[in-house]
Amino acid sequence: MSGFDVLVAGGGIVGMTAAFDLAREGRSVIIVDEGRHSGTTANAGSLHIQMQSRFIRMYPEQVADLERSLPLYPAGAAHWRALEAELGVDLEIKSSGGLMVADDAEQFAFLADKCARERRLGLDVHMLERAELARIAPYLGDAVHGAELCVEEGKLNPLKANEAIRMTLQALGVQRLDEAVITALSPAGHGIEARLSHRGGQRSLSAGQVILAAGSGTGQLAAMLGVAIPTVAEPLHVNVTEATAPLIGHLVQHAERMITMKQLGAGQVVIGGGWPARFTGPEEFPTVNPASMIGNLSLAQHIVPRLGSLRVIRTWAGVNTTTDGQCVLGKLPGHDNVFSAVPGDAGYTLGPLVGRMAAALAMGRDPGHDIARFTPARFAKPG
Amino acid sequence: MSDRLTITFEGRKVGAHPGQSLGAALAASGELALRQTAGGDCRGMFCGMGVCQDCLVTVDGAPNQRACMVKAADGMVVRRQAAPGETPPARMGAAPILFENLQTVTADVLVIGGGAGGLSAALAARSCGLDVLLLDERQTEGGQYYKQPSAALKAEPLDRQQRDGAALRQRCEGAGVRIIDGAETFAALDAGSVMATHAGRTAVYRARAMVIATGAYERAVPIPGWTLPGVMTTGALQTLWRSHRALPGHRILIAGNGPLNLQVACEVMAAGADVVAVAEAAALFAPARAGAALRMALHDPSLTAAGLALMARARRGGASLRFGQVARAISAVKGGLEVELGSATGGHGERFVVDVVALGYGFQPSNELLRALGARHDHDPGIRALRTVRTRECETTVPNLFAVGDACGLGGALAALEEGEIAGLAIAERLGARSPAGVSTNAAHRRLEGHRRFQAALWRLYDAPSPGLSLADDATLICRCEEVSKAALLAAMADGEPSIGAVKRRTRAGMGRCQGRYCGPLIAAHLAEETGRPLDERALFAPRAPVKPVTISDLVGGSPP
Ligand SMILES: Cc1cc2nc3c(=O)[nH]c(=O)nc-3n(C[C@H](O)[C@H](O)[C@H](O)COP(=O)(O)OP(=O)(O)OC[C@H]3O[C@@H](n4cnc5c(N)ncnc54)[C@H](O)[C@@H]3O)c2cc1C
Ligand SMILES: Cc1cc2nc3c(=O)[nH]c(=O)nc-3n(C[C@H](O)[C@H](O)[C@H](O)COP(=O)(O)OP(=O)(O)OC[C@H]3O[C@@H](n4cnc5c(N)ncnc54)[C@H](O)[C@@H]3O)c2cc1C
Ligand code: FES
């Protein structure tokens, strides 16, 4: 039976970056990817740092945890820069700053409160009144009352990043099985055996260690080993406009409503921020939700009226993973050689950092951050 | 034709006729280079029908206007558009709305597309007393076969084809079909409802049954030089003349595969153009094709005779007819475009210098709305495209969703007419409406059978291997919008066995304004050949809203006034 040092289940940003570190350290690695639900191939490339109001609104009970996870985000964004240097490819990373805009005094006060808490946690954030805001962001419309600026926020080009990492893994000799579904995982000797169905055939693989980096599929894989991880697949919708001259410099979000927008290097404006997509067909492919176009783009035009003259040329759907708002990172309870690696919210920002920490755990090294709170053991039923 | 008006293009005064598109007016005055790409190349009108997005200009300060779709108006100031386009003009913001705030318009039957198929379906359903709403994205519909000139042009119909189109439209209006011109359907919601923009606003249109009759657009065959201004599809050349009474140049060469090329050659010759040559990839007079020709003549002697007459007319007009030849390469030279003809398989042939090259390689069905709704499609090698799976009554695999005409499989205008009637009457029966005494679909089915047999023989006569990517060289752009070369695409496609989605993400091919309409089918066919995977729905780019680019202010200008 073919044996690998490490089997990485899931070839998204977390799985790929974990494999990168392991392979660089001489481990033999295979990535197995089902290729159905992914955030990595669909994400919008925002580097998020400040707390997203959408999560505060949707899951108020998670705010305390969100705050505790906050220091990870600037570290995650900084890690992207380190990764860019290691890959030696321009990933179009820009720390252009992120604005969360408010429509009125009340929203402004909500943001001011959030801003004060974030400052205490060490973020470089400021409140900007209308006049000052108009100076640095003249593209914003009259409806915008003020904003919170997070200096370190920004963006990158996920297409370039994913491709650069893929090519690097290929050069390092990391094997990758796509369209492969893991049907069973079981302890075997000192390692783990995985049974797969791959393009119509059955096969099995053995590995000394396994990293579960399968995004929303992680829960299902952990269940094969008797461990509960409540990953939920959340289909999301993204819009993109035709290219235009440089207009929107920042990553723009809203204090109360779901939106993120930014302009790519090539001039297109990407508009998303958590509007729902839906699953279709027996295979549950994610597909766009035309109704989301209306709400999302209408909000975009409200914030940046000039966008009204541009055409939306594409939309797409991808699958985000939600748990309880925090990373699920650590050894699986009862399995010394299996690790889960699911990033928290804004998982592309955190992805490479989480991948690196997972690789460190597998190699018995210090992950460099206090990850005790992220243990998958927190979901175990008491008793 | 009517009085002239004046527009300014890059500071120069250019005359135009009311009703003409900007693109037509500019082409008639020799201005073929319109947009400049990020890579620095110039582009001009390619499709002439709003699909390719290569004709973008800035009109009175507003960027991203399609010259082929915008009507010329007196005093318009038009400029070439350089990538990435100018900053969009300042405008008033509007309070955010949701999908639920959109106005809803209801009818018994919704017909999308007002060509032969859509008009005839609408008329049939209306004749049974149903309330029928027809949406067409064009200001002057009639579709690709009838190609109605704009009323403002005050042009006499050129021939029977245009007279028939005007008559059919009049019958629809007279019968009380509610026709909405200039309504872009950009998303399908379910079997009976769509979202469309019209006059700067979006509404949800809902009905108990729907007919998709969105027609077809032209297939791309990339060759070196195919992105140069002055190189356009045969359909674009035809539209310029038939709908706008404009010729983009005097010396014209037409090349490709299929019966439209010869027809358009004769049409523009009659308009005064000098068609120097027509290259047809199929060796029409090869003895092996005699059977097909005979079958055609049996099924429709008059159409077959018309075809032969066309050839004779083209020859008399001085066009050199080259059978078994294709355009292999085009380059810009002093005084025009130099085209090299030759066999599809190699070797150098004769060169011609012309003003305009028209490339016509047949059609691709516009089936995006149908696919987005989950209607099943099978690949049909005969038409090298997806064919919508339908019942005899033209209902798709999604109940109450009907599809007619070229959108579901390239049957031609005459078949589209019959399918429209069959679908319209089937819907009436489904909805419990009474058809007028004496109307049965038997006759329509019989005529449809005849048209289909004629078409099948015509396809066999014109059968020629699809050049695919074979005529392109390494540097030839396959994705016109994102400027992705053949070499870059081949490299991406050879790495592993990527899905078409992965190829798109690796190269950006298909991410541009035309939404992958030209490169998508080429990439899909190449991948299928290389990997042995089926050329099915999954092999193509996912059909997603918006099926055409939509202006955001139109999209969200939704609440009733
Ligand atoms: C539309 C959209 C936009 C987003 N925008 C942003 C953004 O701008 N910024 C940001 O920071 N984050 C963003 N996110 C979130 C981010 O994309 C994800 O959090 C991140 O990509 C997660 O990475 P991952 O590697 O953990 O999981 P994924 O990228 O989801 O990858 C998991 C992989 O595992 C595979 N898999 C699943 N189940 C199995 C199984 N049983 N066996 C084998 N393989 C399996 C899947 O095929 C997939 O390839 C966005 C998400 C979406 C959907
Ligand atoms: C450029 C071109 C030229 C052609 N010339 C000829 C010819 O000269 N002779 C011939 O026999 N055949 C010609 N054909 C073939 C032609 O497709 C059929 O003959 C015939 O027109 C098919 O009728 P139809 O009703 O299916 O589609 P069409 O006649 O193409 O009608 C489709 C209609 O749907 C509308 N439409 C499409 N998408 C949308 C949308 N999203 N929202 C709203 N409206 C929409 C279009 O504006 C159009 O009016 C041509 C095809 C093309 C593409
Ligand atoms: S020529 Fe105008 S869109 Fe193709």
Structure in words:
The complex is a heterodimer of chains A (383) and B (561). Chain A is 30% helix and 30% strand. In chain A, helix 1 packs parallel to helix 7 (158-171), helix 1 (13-24) packs parallel to helix 10 (347-362) and helix 4 crosses helix 10 (347-362). Chain A has 383 residues and is α+β, with helices and mostly antiparallel strands. In chain B, the strands form 8 sheets. In chain B, strands 1, 2, 3, 4, 5, 6 and 7 form a 7-stranded mixed sheet that branches. A 5-stranded parallel sheet of chain B has the order 11-10-9-15-28, with helices on one face. Chain B has a 5-stranded parallel sheet with strand order 17-24-18-19-20. The longest helix of chain B is centred in the last third of the chain and has 20 residues, at 442-461. The two termini of chain B are 37 Å apart. Chains A and B meet through helix 7, helix 9 and strand 18 of A and strand 6, strand 12, helix 13, strand 31 and helix 15 of B. Strand 18 (311-322) of chain A pairs antiparallel with strand 31 of chain B, so a sheet runs across the interface. Bound molecules: flavin-adenine dinucleotide (FAD) (2 copies) and FE2/S2 (inorganic) cluster.
Give a list of the ligands: flavin-adenine dinucleotide, FE2/S2 (inorganic) cluster
CATH superfamily of the largest domain in chain B: FAD/NAD(P)-binding domain
Largest beta-sheet characterization of chain B: 7 strands, mixed
Which class do the helix and strand fractions of chain B yield? alpha/beta
Main β sheet profile of chain A:
8 strands, mixed
As for the CATH topology of the largest domain in chain B, it is: FAD/NAD(P)-binding domain
Q: Can you identify the CATH class of the largest domain in chain A? A: Alpha Beta
**Helical fraction of chain B:** 25-40%
- Please, how many helices of chain B? 15
User: What's the average pLDDT of chain A?
Assistant: 95
Q: Provide mean pLDDT of chain B, rounded.
A: 94
The top level CATH class name of the largest domain in chain B:
Alpha Beta
Radius of gyration of chain A: 21 Å
How many separate domains make up the residues of chain A?
2
Form type of chain B: globular
CATH superfamily of the largest domain in chain A: FAD/NAD(P)-binding domain
Architecture of the largest domain in chain B in CATH?
3-Layer(bba) Sandwich
* CATH fold-level label of the largest domain in chain A: FAD/NAD(P)-binding domain
Q: Note the beta-strand portion of chain A.
A: 25-35%
Oligomer: heterodimer
